[in-house]
Amino acid sequence: MVLRQECTETGGCTSVPTAIAVTSPDLVLAASDRHTPSAAVLQSAVLRSAGDKGGRAEPYDLDRAIVEMHTLIEHHGYVIALCPASVPDLVVHRLHAVRSVLESDRIAILRPELPPLGLAVLVLQLRQLTMCDFSPGVLASAARLLAHYIYAGAVLGSVARLDRVPVSLKAHAKSWMPGAQFAVLATPQPELVRLTGPESPLLGGPAFGTRMYYAAGQQPTDWITGTLAPAWQVQGAVETRLPAESARWWATGKPGNPGKLAEFAAAIPDISVLYQLVSSVRRESCHWCGLELIGDRCGFCAAPLADPPAPATKPPGGRAGALAPATGLAPATGLAPATGLAAPTALAPVSGPARAALPPAARP
Predict the structure, then answer these.
(1) What is the pLDDT at residue 13?
(2) Measured by CB atoms within 10 angstroms of the end CB, which terminus of the chain is less buried, N or C?
(3) Res 269: pLDDT
């Protein structure tokens, strides 16, 4: 693993080339070491959320949002902005408007289908990986890969209004019973169990080492820390504050009044494991913006991975490429021009599509 920091002669280190930005300060978890950089909080988005009156969102100042993003690009070079899938579309539309006004291809806007605390854990992992030798394009597209290895869920007092995880009619009816309690796993595979009696069923957990983060609303965390964490054999449980967006994502309340909710997320904490996971995936170049990517979609321009070129067909009565026009280019036969160099291996047909390197649940 190669750490990427630029240090001055006085011993101080400058910031990494890629900035991780979020739309709320409660999506920034404390790192376990002092080397992991923090995330940039987009204050314009925070002001917009805090300005809600009477249930109506007030757009934040576009000029301020443009200056804020331009400053991040000037200081870091590239910006990867993440926001919960449950935030109002106005926030995401404004981010896209800022990118359009700046005419910049250095801004990635990601909206993973993770619960807010799970998204905060993903942000922490990306912050860790910015210290490594990954290019901005690889970091942005790695978010979809890493999200597959985050086990995020919640303990809820009701699932009557929950629409982000499949809820059976039976579970919906039991939500109206006094004292009802449910454990819900949103990612990587949705799962819902009712917590009743001393031997309540457990949620399917990870088969690898994780650290658990949990946050309480108006629901106790005893089951998370006393039952789930030991069953999953986590390498430590860390309590943090509940993200304001959690109430809207889990449909239990509203910001400032989360309702009967306790959220948890377990993920890989070791930066060396994260590095090996991302570096093991084959890298490609985006055919639209030219940045590196892993998987089947660019994190910056959202362009899908281009399909490999079809093999040259054999023309009637001759060999393929024999009738190539005199343009100075070699015929499309996989042979290099007559320069004494072998054909570039990157042009050879691959044994399988690059998207196969991603786990099935991480593909679109």
Answers:
(1) 42
(2) C
(3) 96
What DSSP string runs through 164-231? Answer: SS---HHHHHHTTSTT--EEEEEESS-EEEE--STTPPPPP--SS--EEEEEESSS--HHIIIIIHHH
Tokens of 95: 């981010």
Q: What is the pLDDT of residue 31?
A: 93
Q: What is the pLDDT of residue 170?
A: 60
Query: Which residue has 């021009």 as its token pair?
Result: 337
Our CA angle for 110, 112, 118, nearest 5°, is 125
Q: Which tokens in the block code for residue 364?
A: 């679109």
Q: Alpha helix (H) ranges present in the chain?
A: 43-50, 62-76, 89-102, 116-129, 136-147, 169-174, 222-223, 229-232, 246-249, 271-279
Angle at 258 between CA 253 and CA 259, to 5 degrees: 70
Write the pLDDT tens digit of every residue in 241-261. Answer: 999 999 999 999 876 788 899
Walk across the sheet containing 261-267 and list its strands. 191-194, 182-187, 151-156, 261-267, 211-216, 237-239
- pLDDT of amino acid 349: 32
Contacts of 228 by beta carbon, 8 Å cutoff, 6+ apart: 183, 202, 203, 205, 212, 264
User: ω before 188 within 30° of 0 (cis)?
Assistant: yes
Phi, psi (rounded to 5 degrees) for 215: -145, 140
The low-confidence residues of the chain, meaning pLDDT below 70, are 1-16, 47-59, 168-179, 197-199, 255, 307-364
Calpha distance 80→348 (Å, rounded): 32
186: tokens are: 């949103």
Pair of tokens at residue 110: 């990601």
Residue 231's pLDDT is: 95
* Position 320, amino acid: A
- Tokens for 249, please give them: 């994502």
User: Is residue 73 exposed (0-12), middle (13-18) or buried (19+ Cβ within 10 Å)?
Assistant: middle
Calculate the dihedral angle through the C-alpha atoms of 141, 143, 147, 150, rounding to the nearest 10 degrees.
140
DSSP for residue 13: B
Give pTM, 2 decimals.
Answer: 0.79
What per-residue confidence (pLDDT) applies to 348? 32
Q: Return the pLDDT at 177.
A: 61
